[in-house]
Structures are given as structure tokens and as C-alpha cells.
């Protein structure tokens, strides 16, 4: 009997699986998973027990990230004040 492959089914038209969405966004699958749970980034849809992302939403998110990073300076904390070094006291 021939062996069947365990390849993933094709996503619906206009959608991509999580791995491809992460690749298009230049982030890891774990980061995309975190985005999903934080409510950040494109909203996934369940299809056959897997998460599928709408290709137009993925591209829109990438474009928004590119436009946002070019216009706004990155938020960062001011540097912490330096503490003077402790000197060894002579005993």
C-alpha cells in the first residue's frame, strides 16, 4: 500500500497559513502567535482546525508597520542615572 504524505491542506483562497504569514511579516511563528494573543496584528480565522490569515490583512499590517516606523521615532526610556561606584573602605 502506498504511503500517504501528511501535507497540510491548501488554505482557502486569499488566505495563508500561520507559517507563511509569519514569513511575509518577517517575524517568527512564535511572535505571530504572541501577536494573536495580545490582539495585535492581523486577525486569524480558524479553518480545518488551523489558523489562516487573510493575505490582504497581512500585507496591510506590513505596510502599516513600514509607514509607522518611518514617521514616528521609536519610543524608548531615558537612560537610567548612573550611580557612583562604591569605593573600598580601608579597614
Distance between termini? 85 Å
User: CATH first level of the domain at 15-70: which class?
Assistant: Mainly Alpha
Class from helix and strand fractions: alpha+beta
**CATH fold-level assignment of the domain at 15-70:** Arc Repressor Mutant, subunit A
Strand content of the residues, in percent? 5-15%
Helix-residue proportion: 25-40%
Strand order of the largest sheet: 1-3-2
Q: Could you give the order of the helices and strands?
A: EHHEEH
Count the strands? 3
| Cα radius of gyration in angstroms | 23 Å
What does this structure look like?
The chain has 91 residues and is an alpha+beta fold. The protein has a domain at 15-70: Arc Repressor Mutant, subunit A, CATH 1.10.10. The chain is built from 3 helices and 3 strands. The chain has a 3-stranded antiparallel sheet. It is elongated. The model has no long low-confidence stretch (mean pLDDT 85).
Offer a quick outline of the entry:
The protein is of the alpha+beta class and 91 residues long. The chain has 3 helices and 3 strands; from the N terminus they run βααββα. The protein has a domain at 15-70: Arc Repressor Mutant, subunit A, CATH 1.10.10.
List the helices and strands and how they pair.
Layout: E1 15-17, H1 18-25, H2 29-38, E2 44-47, E3 50-54, H3 55-71
Antiparallel strand pairs: 1-3, 2-3
Helix pairs in contact: 1-2
Amino acid at each position: 500500500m502506498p504511503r500517504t504524505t501528511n501535507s497540510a491542506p491548501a488554505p482557502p483562497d486569499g488566505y495563508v497559513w500561520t507559517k507563511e504569514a509569519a514569513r511575509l511579516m518577517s517575524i517568527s511563528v512564535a511572535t505571530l502567535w504572541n501577536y494573536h494573543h495580545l490582539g495585535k496584528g492581523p486577525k486569524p480565522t480558524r479553518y480545518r482546525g488551523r489558523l489562516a490569515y487573510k493575505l490582504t490583512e497581512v500585507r496591510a499590517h506590513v505596510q502599516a508597520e513600514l509607514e509607522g516606523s518611518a514617521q514616528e521615532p521609536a519610543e524608548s526610556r531615558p537612560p537610567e542615572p548612573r550611580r557612583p561606584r562604591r569605593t573600598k573602605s580601608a579597614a
